[in-house]
Amino acid sequence: MSKSEKTKENLLIAGQRLFWTRGFSNVSVREIAQAANVDVALISRYFGSKRGLFEATLEKLPAIDPEDFESAEQLVDAIVELFVTAPRRPGEASALTIILSNAGDPESSEPVREAFRRKWGEPMDRIIGDPAKSALMSAAMIGVSVAEKVLLLQGIAAPGDPAYEAQLRAMLEAALTFELVPAVELA
Amino acid sequence: MSKSEKTKENLLIAGQRLFWTRGFSNVSVREIAQAANVDVALISRYFGSKRGLFEATLEKLPAIDPEDFESAEQLVDAIVELFVTAPRRPGEASALTIILSNAGDPESSEPVREAFRRKWGEPMDRIIGDPAKSALMSAAMIGVSVAEKVLLLQGIAAPGDPAYEAQLRAMLEAALTFELVPAVELA
DNA sequence: TCAGCATGTCAACACCCGTTGACTTTTTTT
DNA sequence: AAAAAAAGTCAACGGGTGTTGACATGCTGA
Known about the structure:
2 copies of one chain form a homodimer.
Chain A: H1 3-22, H2 29-35, H3 41-47, H4 50-58, H5 72-88, H6 95-101, H7 106-128, H8 131-150, H9 162-177
The first copy, chain A, binds a DNA duplex through helix 1 and helix 3.
């Protein structure tokens, strides 16, 4: 790897960590440069602009590959891994945090939305077949994440709790079989 | 109403509209002042600071009163009204949008979280009895809102669709009866 | 060795931010 | 009508923002 490739990589890693947790507008280029041990000017040089670096980090998001799945049920495991297990590994932020921390900013929410659609939304639609159920599963994951990370609600099992993953899995399966429109009758 | 009360009111209305839709850090005091036809300096004068105005707008959020409910089931109607019907009235932003558009900003997410807890979270806990189910209902509403407003997912019935409200109601009722930990068995 | 390119450094740019204090205007009270 | 209080105006402050271009340094091939 050439020298410049190495500094590009450093900027990407630092940008990823900061952008993904605090959102585009809440992180400054100088802060990223300092975290990457690199001069600020190099961000504009190598990525064109702050936004360019942001979009480059989005490219590093893991994606769902429809080829890997034969049934919708198999998807649940992958989603739990992608949205819950992986983010807990050191250095890997939650994909959902990105969505949330950029929700209010029109400039950054658009590339985030596009990345989500391309990397997860469309593959999930393809696997599940029904866009409504696919959307509902996304909604379930997002809802729990917001409740846990933003509102800091008690009651939902803590992420450290071994029951947490099972609970999310159950919610996803419920979403998968949830009868949409008209409303279901419940006891 | 005295003259100053009127301009305070104008600032609150403008701040409400802008803060609640675009988030604290994505709105400038000059923009609010212009929208309220008022000088910028008056924000600091009347509310102490930008943050002071922000917190003052949060006080105008509608609240849930436990006195009004005898059963958890009655709550579903109120939540749908509060989070779905009311925001569609002109000038009233969604309470959920506030949560989302401030999720990435540590400074503003704290007062938002506090307001949420005081106005909705605790009353809901009181009515439902089980904090886990209460949290799950919040999560359901949030998830659907993010899917609809942020990710712009297709598949979930559009807000204009008469089926939309019934669908949300069904989701809330499902959350209310959803068996948490251990995972439920589904067909 | 020296030219040429790649890479990194630095200071400055124009701009926007929230906040402040001195000032003028308007309203109310004496 | 004069004095006092309230309300509003304006310019400037220090500081942070992303971006740029001139310059210095490093490395590489002729």
